[in-house]
Amino acid sequence: MRNQQIVLFFFASLMAASGASAQTLDWQAVEKISPGTRILVKTQQQTYCLFQKASDEKLFCDFIRKSASPQERDSDLTFFRKDVRDVQITGQIDRDGSKDFLTMMAAVGGGGGWDSTNQSNAFAGVKVALLFPLSLDLQYDRIQGHSGFSTEGSAVIPLFRVPGFQPFSKKNFVRVYAEPGVGYRAGGAPFGGYSSAKVLALLWIPPRNGDWSPYIEFQRRFPFESPLQGDNRITIGVMVYSTYTEW
Hints:
Layout: H1 2-23, H2 27-31, E1 38-42, E2 46-54, E3 58-63, E4 76-80, E5 86-91, E6 102-115, E7 120-131, E8 134-143, E9 146-155, E10 157-162, E11 173-187, E12 192-204, E13 213-223, E14 231-243
Antiparallel strand pairs: 1-2, 1-5, 2-3, 3-4, 6-7, 6-14, 7-8, 8-9, 9-11, 10-11, 11-12, 12-13, 13-14
């Protein structure tokens, strides 16, 4: 009888130890989770959120909204370590796909500006992706009373976005690109071959799904024969686009 009690006590102790071991949470592993990672926090209930950080005593994360309504505000969540039974990673940090080069682009736009003699000009045209990160502009314009056509190739280089990247955010933002390029204008007025410096500000509206987005572009052109006799132009238009991460 005594031997049976010893055996039962041994197995009970072993099972208790196994249960305690299974419920032990590696808090150091929790502290190493990358900010922005989607996690499942198990306390007396289960909560999905985006990991912020973990201290010795607490876990901090952002609540995941169920809708993209601007009236529904983000909120911070805090869990005490003693209450956390388990933490599971359910999704890695969201990438900022807007910093990738554009692989597909089609745009229409028009605008105006002024040249070195302060005379105004006007133009309209299209912009298409050539071979990323290159684009091709085809335009009809009116400079100093003379009509002409221009073609221009530019690199489209992502610079920064406003506001900054927020994981899993569905809010609109503006991505700014630099567009150094070269072109040629045929027609009256002092032009011909020229170099170009442009800045493109594109409104991103996630999710894009092929929707048209507005953009504004600022340009300075420098004719090869007389760089100081160039012109300044502002374009307003709409664009449909995608990045290589969407393919």
